[in-house]
Amino acid sequence: MAQIECTFCKIADGRLPSKKVYEDDKVLAFHDISPQAPIHVLIVPKLHITSCDAINADNADYVSAIFQAVPKIAQILGLAEGYRIITNVGRHGCQSVPHLHFHLIGGKQLSEKML
Q: Which residues are catalytic?
């Protein structure tokens, strides 16, 4: 399903290993290799979308599928007390991989401060 050569495309199509949490035809969720919380999962579309800035009518169904999967992923991870979803866009937003991805973090009481 991946269309170009990027790290998350390679993970999504199985060319790079990951510790999968959830997968369907449009979405893959896997554990972050540098977790920032007790539970830190990345959720990616299987279609290469560079960032939120590249979401359009042709790929919005992949983004919708991600948000439909989020409650399922949270349940699998036992996050009944809550969690946070974050995405970074561009250099100033500290987007480290140019493939749309959402960080799902939880497993402890998170700080109210975001910065």
A: 101
